[in-house]
């Protein structure tokens, strides 16, 4: 079982109510004529959706998997967490989808800076006492 974030639960409920076929065996994504999506139909639909939300032309539907892994990691998920969420059985497969961008590298640098500054401040507070004893 994968627990969805609250914003996604609302979006998924809306999609199920408005677009999906009803019932436990209903299609989640229905093509233009009520049948399963065909590759060409999906391509047109994806291009319109991608443009509507401002994604670049080269962004593929499959890239959402990479995005999901990366965002999960940035939220604090462990490698095992991301494997469970994506239904992957190997660490190698999971690592393919995890990415680090410049923004994340800046966050890591800030985190490291905070750790070092805290240790230095702690050490600095201890130094006067140590000096007084010698």
From TrEMBL:
Organism field: Streptomyces glaucus
Keywords: DNA recombination
Name assigned to this protein: Tyr recombinase domain-containing protein
Domain of life: Bacteria
InterPro entries, sorted: DNA_brk_join_enz, Integrase-like_cat_sf, Integrase_catalytic
Span of domain Tyr recombinase: 1-110
């Amino acid at each position: 079982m994968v627990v969805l974030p609250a914003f996604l639960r609302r979006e998924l409920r809306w999609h199920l109510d408005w677009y999906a076929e009803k019932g436990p065996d209903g299609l989640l994504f229905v093509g233009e004529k009520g049948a399963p999506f065909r590759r060409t139909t999906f391509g047109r639909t994806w291009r319109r959706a991608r443009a509507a939300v401002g994604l670049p032309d080269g962004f593929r539907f499959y890239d959402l998997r990479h995005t999901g892994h990366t965002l999960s990691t940035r939220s604090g998920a462990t490698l095992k967490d991301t494997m469970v969420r994506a239904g992957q059985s190997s660490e190698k497969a999971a690592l393919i989808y995890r990415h680090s961008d410049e923004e994340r590298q800046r966050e890591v640098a800030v985190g490291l800076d905070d750790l070092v500054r805290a240790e230095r401040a702690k050490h600095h507070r201890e130094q006067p006492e140590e000096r007084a004893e010698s």
